[in-house]
Amino acid sequence: MRYEGERSRRRGHPDEATDRLARGLGWFSIGLGLFELAAARSLTRNLGLDGQEDLVRAYGVREIGTGIGLLAAEDPAPWVWGRVAGDVLDLATLATGLHGRNRRLDNLTIAMAAVAGVTALDVVCAETLRRETRRPLRPLADYRGRTGYPKGIRASHGAARDLDVPRAFRTPDALRPYAA
Amino acid sequence: MRALVWHGTQDIRCDTVPDPEIEHERDAIIKVTACAICGSDLHLYDHFMPGMKNGDIMGHETMGEVVEVGKGVNGALRKGERVVIPFTIICGECDQCKRGFFSVCERSNRNKHVASKAFGHTTAGLFGYTHLTGGYAGGQAEYLRVPFADKTHIKVPDSLTDEQVLFLSDILPTGWQAVVQCDIEPTDTVAIWGAGPVGQMAVRSAVLLGAKQVVCIDRVPERLDMARAGGAITIDFSQESVISRLNELTGGKGPEKCIDSVGMEAHATATIDSMYDRAKQAMMLETDRPHVLREMIYVCRPAGTISIPGVYGGLLDKIPFGALMNKGLTVRTGQTHVNRWTDDLVRRIDEGQLDPSFVITHRVGLEDGPEMYRTFRDKKDGCIKVVIRP
């Protein structure tokens, strides 16, 4: 989890939304990795990348590792950057199939567009986390002096012990300390 | 007049609406001098509470000056008097009112058949809080009609400012009752989940009532600062384990008294039960996210007390009732019986034991109300409590 930075109107607050996005990308990584491992042959055939099965399986292992890192790490930021790097590798590998002899060019184009979309999401997530801090900054407002006790806390501590607690609100007799 | 009007999920606008009129002889009309946005208003803003209709006027923390009274008010209120309006509407005559259980008044909810279907029996009418509780217009407006006005008011001395007494309408007696019903002993550790306005009032109430140790749990840094200023030890649940820390602070035995001032929209982080709640809520299989309730039951000392001022709306899942039963916990809850506590609290404010205005962080006009709902909901700009001057 990272905390909102200097320029945020919620400075010092945990940024749960981006953290959720990062963890969500972790689950996505694991899912994609398992798919790449299990269906490498059909994937390469449908993308016109025959012969690259082992590479796709290796990328699957990479995705699973990144996913586990994202889910397990206290600070997801380095792992999201890891995903961005992986996205670049994926795009570069897909780009090798961009030639006239590829009869699955349509599929390949769709796959590249999808990877580009996920890359954009990864970059947004990584950039947001980069601007944030690992430890909370002091909040915008300083309420450390707002005690609520005009005469000070010492004077107020126990000042209401004179309250006659109504019977209906007292601890039941059966739960009061028992003395034989 | 102008008023903050509910139009749908996260859609509140400052509209011009007809002025309220005397509809019943026990009514009075109040010219609102100050009102506030309550944490429980956010349940309506986000539409977690069912029963709102397009055009409903928001608000149940209101005070002002009496400008008109019905014939049946019989001198209990006079024009020009300065009053705080409790959020619960009370008849003062039914069995429950006579016993001081004002929040379950048997007569003030004009939609009691709806409440009876939902809860088994009716509860009191509330200002600006769904048609389940009567569908009464709320007080985030220039004027407010007060039903049963001869009983539904708190007179306040001129020596105290609006900001000192406004919170007698809800959050101060709510935090107070939450602690009083724990029946504090001088040896008690009181753990309070939520450092919002009710949690802040509960911290001060626990200190006033003489608890040995007060602990407040939240993750919003400025709210934790404010709780510490009030004398609490704080736990940031985004940084450390609530259960481990509470056990550490109590010699491994757990706090004797636990207070849930969070309610149905708990923002837990990566706990399995909170992920489960979110998934079920997304599928409309659960109305509330009771993470705090589960945690309290787990960590509370056996034979201890759990007090729940936080608002819950419907059906809660995976409550560890086995732990509750086997540990012999006492559960105290309910909407606040405001008028039961307010005379005593006015005296304590007047004597300088407490000044509730410490919690105010934002002061705006009615036209800025819609924007302040967003700011308050998103906890931006250090927002803890918004006071509106119509």
Q: What can you tell me about this protein's structure?
A:
The complex is a heterodimer of chains A (180) and B (390). Chain A is built from six helices and no strands. By secondary structure, chain A is mostly helical. Chain A has a domain at 16-131: Four Helix Bundle (Hemerythrin (Met), subunit A) (Up-down Bundle). Chain B has two domains: 2-170 and 336-389, Alpha-Beta Complex (Quinone Oxidoreductase, Chain A, domain 1), CATH 3.90.180; 172-333, Rossmann fold (3-Layer(aba) Sandwich). Chain B contains 13 helices and 18 strands. Chains A and B meet through helix 6 of A and helix 6, helix 7 and helix 12 of B.
Percent of sequence in beta strands of chain A = under 5%
Low-confidence stretches of chain A: none
Largest sheet of chain A: none
Quote the distance from N terminus to C terminus of chain A: 53 Å
**Structural class designation of chain B:** alpha/beta
- Beta strands of chain B, count: 18
Output the helix-strand order of chain A.
HHHHHH
The CATH superfamily of the largest domain in chain B is: Medium-chain alcohol dehydrogenases, catalytic domain
First-to-last CA distance of chain B: 10 Å
CATH architecture of the domain at 16-131 in chain A: Up-down Bundle
Mind summarizing the main beta sheet of chain B?
7 strands, mixed
User: In angstroms, what is the radius of gyration of chain B?
Assistant: 20 Å
Please name the two chains that share the biggest interface, counting residues whose Cβ lies under 8 Å from a Cβ on the partner chain: A-B, 40 and 52 residues
CATH architecture of the largest domain in chain B: Alpha-Beta Complex
GO molecular function, one term (chain B): zinc ion binding
Domain Alcohol dehydrogenase-like N-terminal (chain B): 25-157
Pfam families (chain B): ADH_N, ADH_zinc_N
Protein name (chain B): Glutathione-dependent formaldehyde dehydrogenase
